Amino acid sequence: MAKSSHYEETKKYWNKKAPSELAREEYDIRKKIHTDLLWREIRRALNGNKNLSILDAGAGPGRFSIPLAQEGHSVVHLDISGEMIEIAKNRLPKTEKCDITFVQQSICEPLPFPDQSFDLVLCLDSPLSYCVNNYESAFAELVRVAKKTVVLCVVNRFGAMMEDAAEFDFQYFGKLKTQWDLLHTGNLNVNEEIKQFEPNLMPSWHGFTPKEVKDLIKNHSGKIIRISAPGTFTRCMSPEIIEKVYQNEEVYQDFLDFLEEFDSKEDVLGVGGIYAGGLLVRFEI
Questions:
Q1: Would the pTM of this model clear 0.90, i.e. be above it?
Q2: In the chain, how many domains are there?
Q3: Range of the domain at 261
Q4: Distances (CA, A) of 3 to 7, 18, 67, 106, 130
Q5: pLDDT tens digit string along 37-55?
Q6: For 226-284, what is each residue's pLDDT tens digit?
Q7: How many CB atoms lie within 10 A of CB 12?
Q8: Does residue 175 lie in a domain region?
Q9: Which of 150, 166, 168 shows the shortest CA–CA distance to 158?
Q10: Strand pairing of 279-284 and 223-228?
Q11: Residues 6 or more apart from 247 whose CB is under 8 A from it?
Q12: Is 222 within a domain?
């Protein structure tokens, strides 16, 4: 069966981004913080258990899958991008035996695994958002293959709107346009009109509200354990100050403690970090 144009665009986009993806933590301290906050949630989900079966759906260059495999877990690294997978394979230590399997596939398609295959399912850095109009069926697949626990990160609608969308609209249309679509539907449809202005934009995506995510989980009989908008507070801090905080391990860990409490407040859940999957939820089936 022929792949959709959105599938091909998504694969092409992430193939092109693959060589620079891991470096995001090096040149953007806010992305580093976002990743560290996601690791904290993963640690809670692992709960000290060893030798778990884990699906990392949308695993990219192995930001999470490789360390988890190195810790002794049995990991399936699934990603739409062949370039991402090659980078992940090349990052595996040659002298270390890891139980990791690579699968090239979009999470928007039915997953090739039996029901309840994995002790833990991860879907981080927002791959579910790129399923756009069929994110509900993709979400159902993630739930289907999970035995109990899922850790999910998606684009936070209002946080994404606060980044570059208004500037784009006024620059190219002279008025708000895509912002209205995002506000009402959550979808940024990267159509031919938009591509003529910015040919290198990421493919179409869906930004979620906290209520959407909560309803999605409730509709699949899930129970939310924790929900947060990681990185929200860092929006009001300069990267220079954050870098100084990062240099002192004790101060940095205390800072992460503060962020976790602040970012989980109901009043800030709709924001999230800059240029990152801004809505994080751990839930059980």
A1: yes
A2: 1
A3: 5-163+206-284
A4: 6, 21, 32, 10, 15
A5: 999 999 999 999 999 999 9
A6: 999 999 999 999 999 999 999 999 999 999 999 999 999 999 999 988 877 789 999 99
A7: 14
A8: no
A9: 166
A10: antiparallel
A11: none
A12: yes
Distances (CA, A) of 255 to 87, 185, 247, 250, 270: 32, 35, 12, 9, 21
Instruction: Tokens 């924790």: give the residue.
Output: 226
Closest residue by Cα to residue 282 from 26, 88, 39, 58: 39
Assess if residue 186 is contained within a domain.
Answer: no
Question: What sign has the CA pseudo-torsion 231, 11, 204, 166?
Answer: positive
Q: Enter the tokens of residue 100.
A: 């990791």
Number of helices and strands in the chain (H, E): 13, 9
Given pLDDT bands bounded at 50, 70 and 90, which one contains residue 200? confident
Paired strand residues for 53: 74
In a domain, 187, yes or no: no
Beta bridge partners of 163: none
CA atoms within 13 A on the CB side of 240: 0
- For the record, the structure tokens of 188 come out as 């940024």
**CATH number of the domain that 91 lies in?**
3.40.50.150
**Burial code of 253-284, b = ≥16 C-beta within 10 A, e = fewer?**
eebbeebbeebbeeebbbbbbbbbbbbbbbbe
Q: Collapsing DSSP states into helix, strand and coil, what is residue 282? A: strand
- Residues 119 and 52: beta-carbon distance below 8 Å: yes
Q: At what angle do helices 239-247 and 249-263 cross, to 10 degrees?
A: 120
What DSSP character marks residue 233? Answer: G
